[in-house]
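request received
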Amino acid sequence: MRRADVISGVILAVFGLITLFIIIPWQIEPGPAGYMSPRLVPVLMMVLITGLSVLLAIRNLASDAAPGDEPPLFTWAEMLAIVKIATVFAVAIALYFWVSPAVSGGALVAGSLIALGERRPWVIVAMPAGLLITVWLLFYKVLGTAIV
Amino acid sequence: MDIITGFADVLTPKILMWIAIGVTIGYLVGALPGLGKATGVAVSIPLTFYLHPVAALGMLIGIAKGSAAGSAVSAILINTPGEPASAPTALDGYPLARQGKAQKALKMGLYASVIGDFLSTLVLIFLAAPLASYALLIGPVELCAILLFSLTFIGGLSGRSLIKGLIAAAFGVFFATVGIEPETFVPRLTFGLLELDDGIKLVPMAIGMLAVAEMIAQAGNLKALDAEFEQIKDGTAHEDRVILRSEWRRCIPVILRGTFIGSVVGILPGLGASVGSFLSYAATRKASKTPEKFGTGMIEGIAAAESADNAVVPSSLVPLFALGIPGSVIAAILIAAFILHGLTPGPLMFKQQPRLVADVYAAMLCASLIMLIIGSVGQRLFAMVIRVPLRLIIPGVLLLCSIGAYLETSTVFSIWVMLFFTGLGLLSRKLDFSFVTFLIGFVIGPNLELSFRQSIQILNHDPANLIHHPIAMAFGFLTLGTIWWVGRGHSPVVAAPTSATRNSREEEA
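response:
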């Protein structure tokens, strides 16, 4: 049994059922009379996904492999990287709305540098500035357009 | 279609400059571990919005070709392939570099790449148009069957599990249904968001799944990669830095075989460059009189792997150009660029846009030669670039990804889409669901739905009427056969042996 496959199979099957019976009827109208239903393909795909997910869970439940020696899905370093990068993006998006797109871009670069372990102040200052100037030159001067 | 006209359009300083920029970017992207050609092309598409179509397509093709060649640099120097398809290159390239013969190995990697790429481009030119003329004869029922077969084939072969591949494909088609339904104008799964009325955009999705997800995965693996950079050394003897005539004599047949294998693998949807390079490497080792020496620094190993790896890129466009079906993730992403610049891939493009097709072909051939020049001149520079620590590269890539996604709609909504699919991309890597199949399912989803709806009407809601469509029946049986064959564990997926790109091997498919 591969535990991750069993769990993902179950989660996908539940997601498929919720989509089939709640989301699709809620989000897609039946369509006008005389036309083929706009729900047809989404429903078919969800039926397929649900069926295959159940099969995935059952096949892995029935397999002989021992569940104990599986490596974790995400290592500690990977989880830390995800949290750090997600935080940097959250700050950058907030700055986009509250300050300006340029500050947001600078924060994205500087924040990721710090998050990834860069501690030299001149790199943390020079790299965002250099990249933003390069982007400005590329779009506004070389390509002759604006980022709006 | 007149290729001479194509060369007349392409051989201008401006177009050649953009192709050269594309090849250079591609080479750099390919050389950096974790950044594949699909990532490079996806991030660069928005940069081409404002370029002339020929310059834009030439640049993107240059990126695709350059990155396939550039991935050998990190494979040889730090035993970490820029792309999974260069993993067999590392088997002999890295030992050669440890012996102080890095320059020799890099040169052979470049020459094999250029020859494989150039010959495979000729295969594309001579094969796509004749195939397309046959494709024009097929109707919606046949097209639906072919698309289903392709999706099943790709789903079965691009991952380790057929079930997961099919789930990924179904999700791709499902996400393609988001937006206003073109027949009834009913909004589907938009949750009241006007931004979703036009559907989900491919570029932010691809950037999120391929580039941002890969950068985050690499960010969790920084220490291991940094340690590899310390191992690089270079020899001083002349014979260690050039390819000797005797080595050329041994490698030419190997390169030709690798090109043939790569071209065939590229034409078949879903197999990908990794399968091509591993098959070519295995065939060369088997044909060698000294197979036991492979893995210790045999230059033929590099020639075999790189020629096949690069031959896959142009030939994987054969199904795209002839049938409109993307057989690889790079083809799926290039569709967006082709359509954006006025060229809809498929059999009709040879009739409707012969001049642009000729321009694309000419640009592809020029890109091969430019790759040779830039690879030769810039080899030392590229070797230096890979010494730049990833922690300095990732922030720049994240900024480019964000700008690229933003430019698609000029709203922050695209950034949310990118981040949503980043999460999905990370999960699909970790759980081994093929994001290649997902993306291809997403790209062919609208065509599949349209042809499926038309088929139902043509067949008068009765599957028994399929008997009047023998080609569709044949592809139906092929689909069932694929499910049976792959379901019995015959998937030819080959895992890359090194750590950095382990999770991204299927980007090559």
